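**Sequence with structure:**
===
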Amino acid sequence: MALDYVNDAGLPMAFAYATVAARAGHPAAQRTLGYMYRKGRGVKADGFQAEALFTSAANAGDAYAAFNLAGMHITGDIRVRDHDECMRLLRQAVNGGVTEAAAVLGDRLAAIDKDAEALNWYLYAAQRGHAGSMFAAGCWYRDGLGTTPDPVQAVRWFLAMLDSGNGDGIHEAIQLAKEGMTDEQIRTAGQLAGRSSEAENLILAARKHGG
């Protein structure tokens, strides 16, 4: 709490409490102390200490520590990079409820051309409200990556982004609506996204484009 709610003047207190709790074997404290060492907050930055603390916490079942440790594998800020271990840690984080880890897992799988599996993880994160994964899912359904092209599913996820206050998918949805989608397809996409009124706006835009 000191780390989250006290200004930088309180960092020594946060470091002291985290150190005591981490030494007592508390996984969340180990993860917090690892974060402080990783970012150099309240203590000199030390990647080796961060790695050791994240590892202890992850081994004790802390999902966010597993996610942080996977991040160190991705960035190379770790003694030995290991792709398989990174993927295992990301899956541990997902299983522990870290939605963002599913999005990163999708990115890692996409990088090695495992597109179908990557799309599944983007969908997993999208269904849990991760806007970046919604955008990825929309683009992949539009372009047929990891699946056959499906403009209905593409527009569905572009519209669903609005639930997160993110309008980055609107342009793509409009383009798809203009490129030959039927009114029925657009309405279906809107229903799936819970955005029927926006679907009607897409239909109007498509009709206007058609002259």
Remarks:
- DSSP finds 13 helices and no strands in the chain.
- The two ends are 59 Å apart (CA to CA).
- Residues 1-96 form a domain with the Serine Threonine Protein Phosphatase 5, Tetratricopeptide repeat fold (CATH 1.25.40.10).
